[in-house]
From TrEMBL:
Full-sequence range covered: 244 to 602 of 602
Protein name, entry field: Glutamine--fructose-6-phosphate aminotransferase [isomerizing]
Broad class of enzyme this protein falls into: transferase
Active site (record annotation): 354
Subunit and partners: Homodimer.
Biological source species: Natrarchaeobius chitinivorans
Functional note: Catalyzes the first step in hexosamine metabolism, converting fructose-6P into glucosamine-6P using glutamine as a nitrogen source.
Signal peptide interval: none
Cellular component terms per the entry's GO annotation: cytoplasm
Amino acid sequence: GKGEYDHYMLKEIHSQPTALSNAIDGRVVDGEVSFEDLPPGTFADVETVQLVACGTSYHASLFGTHLLRSAGVSADAIRASEYEPVSGPVDERTLVVAVTQSGETADTLDAVRTASDRGARSLAVTNVVGSTAAREADDALYIRAGPEVGVAATKTFSSQAVTLALLSQRLAADLPEATPPADSTAMLEALDDLPNQAESVLAESRASALARELLDARSYFFIGRGLGRSVALEGALKFKEITYEHAEGFASGALKHGPLALVTEESPVFAVYTGGEDGKTTTNATEARSRGAPIVAVGPDDHPLADAADAHLSVPDTHPVWTALLANVQLQLVSYHAAALLDRPIDKPRNLAKSVTVE
Ligand code: M6R
């Protein structure tokens, strides 16, 4: 049951320290990624990776694609519903990774079947043991988040992000032409602290008070760059899904090419930064601020954006990959508290189902 929590969503947000520990447990051995059923060399023949997914899992796939590319692995994230028109040439050296919490999403299953028919190899990254995706794919890798009841995906995004980060390191190790980035050791080492850091974000977040302050806005915008972009898109999806308020996520740099026309004092902008590659996000957020928009900086302390913003949701200053993941936890809390204040049916938003089994 929900236990002490008013909603499953809040319970699931708070279970992230445990979910993260489970996703990591036993999978980094002597500084190397190790997956029980996928021994070293499993991916030696892979030339390119296509991550196919929907919704939140698509945002986790954008996150994973970023990590694969920075590990020197050729990779794309493709919305599963768009697979057929956009996949391009596929053969047995293409690894199609179905990223799906439920393992039952029709669009995702259809994309993998299309890819398999064209000769691709497949891997399901899923939460549900024995799901259709797990059974149909050549291999399965479980994110071990435990059951998720709320329609809004929360802990499973975090578990997918960690699992895909580990997978990116394994692929880089298997592929002769891939070059793991110099800081991959630091990224894996920093994983040890991630569950505790998630705990401290949950304990210290100011998201509830902030959600109340911003409740009268007309639109909510979320911006970020690189990994921050995937978090911005996910932040906006979560917000619209459970509050029914208008929310959009953009790449920081895209704001000035159109969306800035919508920015007013009635449209708060959540600017996600990771401590890594965020000078430009600061500039873009400042442009929005000069149009009167309240800016909420979401990232580590001691950063120009945190100083320039009207409000700050603080995230531990760890490896940029995990900073991005923790920024997402802050945004989950913002959405949850805004929806709770608006008295929305948080665990079962209108028109939506936990798993979408129609195309
Ligand atoms: O089970 P899946 O991960 O394949 O589901 C994909 C989407 O339907 C899902 O993430 C959806 O976007 C969530 N309701 C978002 O919170």
